[in-house]
């Protein structure tokens, strides 16, 4: 057995992905019954955060504690990573001391380089290119609320960003149709799109994407690292608000997801976000905990 990493959803095969989602649902039920298991006793997760986080940090740290292990928060501000120590050196040192590493960073190649030199599993906790842990939670949430997403139609409204790229991978792995509505100039990466061209279509109006959809998702228009583009993006995404009116074009039992944090009145209306008949964002956020516990178990069990 080699060391397994989770840098994108495609690092799992289709059966493995489904088993992680099912295990997440099981772990949630066990937690709700007060039943704990501690497969990570005496184990340590290193958490490298080069960008801010609420959900990801809390879910990994709490998840590790609940499984009997502990987590170390490592920020570039107070490690040598921030002073230019090469990723390859940091990977070799840190991975000799901890049992698993999660990294939130800018360039996806930072994760790839770290993983190449790491003795232990590495998890992508968000890069500029992908956010696969969020998709584990989103898939779990859809399965819990509506059953399998296979054969369904999913609409992504907004930026062709890291979340959108992970939705493209999810469409490939879970066999759903994905319609992406984004303004010209904000399309997803061509190479990522090309891999999934039979499953994914890019359209130019939110209405086209959402018509007949079973699942509608969006995200902020300016991601972390794009703060200086905020004003330009506000103008470019004019008309891309997801609200109750837009949702009237979706299927009657369609649900709405957002990875959060949300900007009410920009990409989503406050009324839709708070409408628990349609919006499942709080379950989606909670499921980060269960999905990542299932993922960490899987990586530990399948690495030597
Ligand atoms: N959705 C998500 O990853 O949230 P955080 O940035 O708070 O971790
Ligand atoms: N696209 C957003 C997701 C935040 C969880 C970002 O990268 O900032």
From TrEMBL:
Chief location category: cytoplasm
Intracellular or extracellular location(s): Cytoplasm
Domain Aspartate/ornithine carbamoyltransferase carbamoyl-P binding: 4-143
One Gene Ontology term of the molecular function aspect: ornithine carbamoyltransferase activity
Coiled coil: none
One Pfam match: OTCace_N
Residues that, per the record, bind L-ornithine: 162, 219, 223-224
EC number: 2.1.3.3
This protein's record includes keyword Cytoplasm: yes
Presence of the UniProt keyword Protein transport in the record: no
Domain Aspartate/ornithine carbamoyltransferase Asp/Orn-binding: 150-298
Annotated binding of carbamoyl phosphate, by residue: 53-56, 80, 104, 131-134, 259-260, 288
Keywords: Cytoplasm, Transferase
Pathway terms, separated by semicolons: Amino-acid biosynthesis; L-arginine biosynthesis; L-arginine from L-ornithine and carbamoyl phosphate: step 1/3
InterPro entries with a match to the protein in the record: Asp/Orn_carbamoyltranf_P-bd, Asp/Orn_carbamoylTrfase, Asp/Orn_carbamoylTrfase_sf, Asp_carbamoyltransf_Asp/Orn-bd, Orn/put_carbamltrans, OTCase_ArgI
Catalytic activity: carbamoyl phosphate + L-ornithine = L-citrulline + phosphate + H(+)
PANTHER family: ORNITHINE CARBAMOYLTRANSFERASE, MITOCHONDRIAL, ORNITHINE TRANSCARBAMYLASE, MITOCHONDRIAL
HAMAP family: OTCase
Family stated for the protein in its record: Belongs to the aspartate/ornithine carbamoyltransferase superfamily. OTCase family.
Protein name from the UniProt record: Ornithine carbamoyltransferase
Biological source species: Microbulbifer elongatus
